[in-house]
Every structure is written in structure tokens, then in C-alpha cells.
């Protein structure tokens, strides 16, 4: 594909020969003639990039050493990179078509004619699968459940009953949707499990990473808003509500009945206590713990999660504690000597 075609589709401007042909996207250190490389930061300043096209931000200085015949400048080069990667390196189609003979499809289910159901998948009663859905080998879907059009369910995904999956979602291998939550009533005789009879509602264009779990509600639904992206090894407990276009990085844990607004971000290994509510556009730093509600349009950090600028000052003081302790010890010694 010629660079001018990429620019026509994805935007930006060209410095140099826009008729150059681009055959692949490659790492700047390994790129060869005919390929495109995105130089996103200073890590590659000393690399003599051999790519024919280098993708840069509008105001970014080009590297001193390169062999490119064209520079593609873009206001959001990360977006242009992703779109070009998808265009030149599309995802492989499924290795099967239609419903594989080894798949188990129970009576009472409905599968659109253009869906693909792989070997040894299980489709239960009252499961409704809309147009263009791909169910990979070994996936298990119990009813009643609906799967929106264009969704891809990878191998070993388990979807339990009372789940509603939107359009154009991706559920990666090992994800579990709709398992019972961690709810017990404890007394002297032991623990009584609280039955979970709610469901899970996942909006359109949601991604759920490998081995992540989203529990069903006790009575109502656990809700994941449209456009939200969930990384690997994330746990979302019963009756949690997450707004649209939010991001949860690996090993995040959200406790039961927590409510999270739109466009929120949780860094790796961060978490949130149950029955608390935060608003929209809250960013939670990695390894932080949100232990109370009320935050909105703020960056939180630490345990308990506190406004980031304040927590940075606290961290700075913590670094000084050994010296402060020594100074206090010296002052105590001086006071004792003066009193003697």
C-alpha cells in the first residue's frame, strides 16, 4: 500500500516521497526498506532506522540517522500506527467455518447463519448468537445469554447464564463471565453462601483480557459500559458498575457493588473497596487502593488512594524519615544533656 493511501485513510501529512510503497510495519531497530517504523520516544534517537517511512508526531524532531524516503507526520501517531498495523497485518480468519461437527449445540439455541462455532465448543439452551460472531474451540456458553453481532469469543472462555454481551466485543482466552460472586453469611456454624441470581451486562466494543473474571450480580446485574477495556487477570466482583470507555490494567480488583464512572483508568494491581462510588475521569495509579468514594476528575495514588500531588509530598517526607529520626535522636540527647 502506498503512503499516500495510508495518509488518505488515516490522516496526517508527508515530508518526502508519498508514493513510496509500504509493505509492513516493523520495529525501528529491525525495519528494512519498504517498511514503516513508528518512533514514539527518545529510545531510538541513536538508531539508524532503515525503514522507508518513519511515523512521527507533528512537531517531533526526526532522528539524525535514518534511511527513510518519507516522514509521515500525524497529530496522534499512536493511532495512525494502530490503524496501519491493522490494515497491513489483519487478524487471521478462523480456521473453521460454520458450526464444526464436534461442537455441541443444544436445542433451543439460536445461531445466525454466518457465525463460526469451533471444535468442541458448547452452546447451551436459550443462547442467542447474532450475525458474524466467532466462537473459538472449547468455549462454553450457557443460557439464557445473548451475544451481539461481530463479537469474538476466544478459546476456553466460559459465559454463564443471564449474560448479555454487546456487539463487537472480544473475550480473550480463559475469561469467565457470570460466575457467582464471593458472598457469604458467616456465623458460629460456618458460612452460608448467598445465592447469585442476577446477571452480567457488557456493552458494545468491550474487551476482556485473558483469565479475567466478571461475576454476576446477586439480584441486579454487574455492568460493564461500552468501550471499556479490561486487561488480563482482572477481577470485577458482583454488582459492580463500570462506566463507558474505562481502562483496567492487569491484576486490578474491584470489590462488590463498587461504582466507577466513565473514562476512568486503573493502573496495574490497583483496587477499589466495595460499596463506594467514584465519578468520571478518575485515574488510579498502579498499586493504589481506593478506600472511599467521592473522587471525580482527579488522579489518585497510594494506600489509601489520595490526590496525587499530596501523595507525592507524603512520599517525599517518607524518604526523609531516617534522617529525621537521627535529628530527633540528636535533639533528645541535647535536651537530656542540658537538663543534667
Short description:
By secondary structure, the protein is α/β, with parallel strands linked by helices.
Can you characterise this structure?
The protein starts with a helix and ends with a helix. The longest helix is centred in the C-terminal third of the chain and has 19 residues. It folds into 2 domains: 86 residues, MurE/MurF, N-terminal domain (Udp-n-acetylmuramoylalanyl-d-glutamate--2,6- Diaminopimelate Ligase, Chain: A, domain 1, 3-Layer(aba) Sandwich), CATH 3.40.1390; 208 residues, Hexapeptide repeat proteins (UDP N-Acetylglucosamine Acyltransferase, domain 1, 3 Solenoid). It contains 4 helices and 37 strands. A hairpin with a 4-residue loop joins β36 and β37. With 340 residues, the chain is α/β, with parallel strands linked by helices. It has an 11-stranded mixed sheet, with helices on one face.
Class per helix and strand makeup: alpha/beta
Which strand order spans the largest sheet, edge to edge or round the barrel?
8-11-14-17-22-25-28-31-34-36-37
- Can you name the CATH architecture of the largest domain? 3 Solenoid
Number of domains: 2
Main β-sheet, in a few words?
A: 11 strands, mixed
Shape: flat
Beta-strand content = 25-35%
Low-confidence stretches: none
CATH topology of the largest domain: UDP N-Acetylglucosamine Acyltransferase, domain 1
Radius of gyration: 26 Å
* Nearest-integer average pLDDT: 95
CATH superfamily of the largest domain: Hexapeptide repeat proteins
| Span between termini | 88 Å
Amino acid at each position: 500500500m502506498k503512503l499516500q493511501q495510508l495518509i488518505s485513510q488515516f490522516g496526517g501529512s508527508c515530508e518526502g516521497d508519498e508514493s513510496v510503497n509500504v509493505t509492513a510495519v516493523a520495529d525501528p531497530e529491525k525495519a528494512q526498506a519498504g517498511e514503516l517504523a513508528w518512533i514514539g520516544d527518545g529510545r531510538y534517537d541513536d538508531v539508524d532506522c532503515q525503514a522507508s517511512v518513519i511515523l512521527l508526531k507533528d512537531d517531533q524532531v526526526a532522528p539524525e540517522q535514518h534511511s527513510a524516503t518519507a516522514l509521515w507526520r500525524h497529530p496522534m501517531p499512536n493511532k495512525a500506527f494502530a490503524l496501519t498495523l491493522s490494515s497491513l497485518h489483519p487478524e487471521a480468519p478462523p480456521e473453521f467455518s460454520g458450526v464444526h461437527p464436534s461442537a455441541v449445540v443444544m436445542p433451543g439455541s439460536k445461531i445466525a447463519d454466518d457465525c463460526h462455532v469451533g471444535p468442541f465448543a458448547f452452546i447451551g439452551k436459550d443462547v442467542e448468537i447474532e450475525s458474524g460472531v466467532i466462537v473459538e474451540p472449547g468455549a462454553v456458553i450457557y443460557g439464557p445469554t445473548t451475544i451481539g453481532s461481530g463479537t469474538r469469543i476466544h478459546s476456553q472462555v466460559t459465559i454463564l447464564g443471564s449474560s448479555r454481551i454487546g456487539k463487537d466485543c472480544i473475550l480473550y482466552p480463559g475469561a469467565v463471565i457470570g460466575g457467582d460472586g464471593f458472598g457469604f453469611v458467616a456465623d458460629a456454624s460456618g458460612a452460608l453462601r448467598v445465592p447469585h441470581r442476577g446477571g452480567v451486562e457488557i456493552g458494545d466494543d468491550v474487551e476482556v483480557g485473558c483469565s479475567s473474571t466478571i461475576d454476576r450480580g446477586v439480584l441486579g446485574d454487574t455492568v460493564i459500559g461500552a468501550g471499556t477495556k479490561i486487561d488480563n487477570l482482572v477481577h470485577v466482583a458482583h454488582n459492580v458498575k463500570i462506566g463507558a470507555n474505562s481502562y483496567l490494567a492487569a491484576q486490578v480488583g474491584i470489590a462488590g457493588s463498587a461504582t466507577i464512572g466513565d473514562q476512568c483508568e486503573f493502573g496495574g494491581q490497583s483496587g477499589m473497596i466495595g460499596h463506594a462510588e467514584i465519578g468520571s475521569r478518575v485515574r488510579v495509579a498502579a498499586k493504589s487502593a481506593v478506600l472511599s468514594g467521592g473522587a471525580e476528575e482527579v488522579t489518585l495514588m497510594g494506600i489509601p488512594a489520595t490526590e496525587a500531588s499530596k501523595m507525592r509530598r507524603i512520599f517525599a517526607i517518607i524518604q526523609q524519615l531516617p534522617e529525621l529520626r537521627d535529628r530527633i535522636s540528636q535533639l533528645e540527647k541535647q535536651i537530656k544533656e542540658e537538663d543534667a
